[in-house]
């Protein structure tokens, strides 16, 4: 049994460093447009070259009390599970609570202690299988990224791929949980790599989403995305959905 530092302990953590809490609509993937509270944790175990999310401050969180106002209070970190429950319940009729980051699975101990009135929607890089095991019965939605990293970005590529597959196996779609995958596609994304990984996880997901990268200079040609979609359709229901929240300037 693996007993490394990222092996989950069995007790819940009562606090965590959170970079922001806000209310918006889900801007990515098949649930685009549903109203959500977003809880963005600090810290990440990866450094994706295209990442659009700055590393959050550890000292304080920013909390948008009125949705869309652009006005933030700055509660001190760490925040408790009770603080989070109070903040997200203030947002009214939400569909779910998006747990994002950074990498939320680095805070699995805290997530396992959350008791919220709304279902949990996990947004993860799917590379920490021990943490995934710990929270698998807490989350109702899993938006799992497939990270096709260049060899220079990982010490052990086989282990990275195994960890990804193990996360999807653990958090797979069931009667009580939806699980789908997103792949951020850039002009450097190799179709063979995408197809290999999607083939390996197809049995665990309800659909796959090809998400064009937001930086214009990194975008592939439209024909490339359509060709990739056609290949993926051999394995799983596949949609091309760009990030929508950036179109209308919401968080
Ligand atoms: C900021 S990440 C946080 C959650 C987790 N670490 C992950 O990567 O899934 C949230 C989502 O934004 C996507 N994303 C980040 N930068 C992007 C970009 N430049 N263009 C399109 N999607 C991007 C990620 O791939 C992921 O699906
Ligand atoms: N509106 C909106 N939708 C999102 N879906 C995933 C996001 C993320 O950064 O995890 C995100 C985000 O930051 N904003
Ligand atoms: S895993 Fe997610 S948060 Fe971390 S660097 Fe990649 S896109 Fe950004
Ligand atoms: Mg985002």
Automatic annotation (TrEMBL):
Self-association and partners: Homodimer.
Pathway membership, UniProt: Purine metabolism; 7-cyano-7-deazaguanine biosynthesis
HAMAP family according to UniProt: QueE
Source domain of life: Archaea
Pfam families: Radical_SAM
Binding site for [4Fe-4S] cluster: 44, 48, 51
Record-stated family: Belongs to the radical SAM superfamily. 7-carboxy-7-deazaguanine synthase family.
Single GO term (MF): 4 iron, 4 sulfur cluster binding
Gene3D superfamilies documented for this protein: Aldolase class I
Function: Catalyzes the complex heterocyclic radical-mediated conversion of 6-carboxy-5,6,7,8-tetrahydropterin (CPH4) to 7-carboxy-7-deazaguanine (CDG), a step common to the biosynthetic pathways of all 7-deazapurine-containing compounds.
Residue intervals of the Radical SAM core domain: 31-251
PANTHER family: 7-CARBOXY-7-DEAZAGUANINE SYNTHASE
Enzyme Commission no: 4.3.99.3
Positions that bind S-adenosyl-L-methionine: 50-52, 102
The keyword Acyltransferase is annotated on this UniProt entry: no
Broadest EC class assigned to this enzyme: lyase
Catalytically driven reaction(s): 6-carboxy-5,6,7,8-tetrahydropterin + H(+) = 7-carboxy-7-carbaguanine + NH4(+)
Protein name per the record: 7-carboxy-7-deazaguanine synthase
Keyword flag Magnesium: yes
Binding site for Mg(2+): 53
Keywords annotated in UniProt: 4Fe-4S, Iron, Iron-sulfur, Lyase, Magnesium, Metal-binding, S-adenosyl-L-methionine
Protein source organism: Methanolobus chelungpuianus
Gene: queE
